[in-house]
Amino acid sequence: MDHPILVIAVIAALIYGVVAYIFLPMAWTRRERQPRLARQPMVTQTKQGIPGDAINVGLVGGRDTIIRAMNDAGWYPADPVTLKTSVEIVGSVLLHRAYKHAPVSPLFYGGRVEDLAFEKPSGKSADRRHHVRFWQVLERGEEGREVWLGAVTYDRGVGVSHYTGQVTHHISPDIDAERDALIGDLTAAKVVEAMYQVTGLGPTLNGRNGGGDPYWTDGEIRLARLTPEAKKTDTPPQTLDTPQIVQWKDAVMKQLGQTFGN
User: Concatenated DSSP letters for the chain?
Assistant: First the structure.
């Protein structure tokens, strides 16, 4: 009786050792295509210093290139927050009127408000929309071009913040779906040369944004290297390899998120 128990214990210990000391470290530690991003924070902050949206998307290219590419992909620049635009977005929500350039609330990354913000309408008014904020974080990345990090989410409706009670948008918890959809829009617009992943926040099932809304993510940032000046190309974008262990981790997190993250 003791012998089989001992064998089982040894096998369990070996499995634990392989998983804990080989496979999981491989999933978390890998050679990055933009190694200097490893020193960057991976969560934004609100004006009050509350952790905000997670960084989950990135672009490689100049400012004008990004604006042109996003426009071609069907995303509109967000208007600045002013008294006039604040009244207009309230009117859009209450009267169900279109406002494709509606402002977004400011978020901060590295102490700076977003450099660029875009949105893609979803429905008749500004209460539901896809939106993204971008910050330039590297003037010259590994490819010799500017690197921007962003946070993209889906606003599913207007309500009040769970933290401050202020009127705000509530987001959908599946921020990975928004990340993938944005990269898909840019790819469909034929303005992407290459795509790859870098390590972001890390696997998260119980994240909370600046309004207290829950989110889940596999923790990866998807980067798209844009064509020069966002010129359209019929050449399919190159998809650079992601380590197999990371692909497995992403698949597991997707299943867990869909099961437990909502």
Answer: -HHHHHHHHHHHHHHHHHIIIIIHHHHH----SSGGGGGS-SEEE-TTS-EEEEP-EEEES-HHHHHHHHHHTT-EEPPP--HHHHHHHHHHHHHT---TT------EETTEE-SEEEEEE-SSSTTSEEEEEEEEEESS-TTSS-EEEEEEEEEEEEEE-TTT--EEEEEPSBHHHHHHHHHHHHHHTT-EEEEEEEE-S--EEEEE-TTS-EEEE--EEEEEEEPGGG---SSPPEE----HHHHHHHHHHHHHHHHH--
pTM: 0.85
Residue 95: burial class (beta carbons within 10 Å; 0-12, 13-18, 19+):
exposed
Residue 204 pairs in a beta bridge with 217
pLDDT in tens, 89-124: 876 777 677 878 888 999 999 999 999 999 999 988
pLDDT of residue 262: 59
Q: What is the mean pLDDT of residues 221-250?
A: 91
How is residue 174 written in tokens?
């599946």
* pLDDT, average across residues 239-260: 83
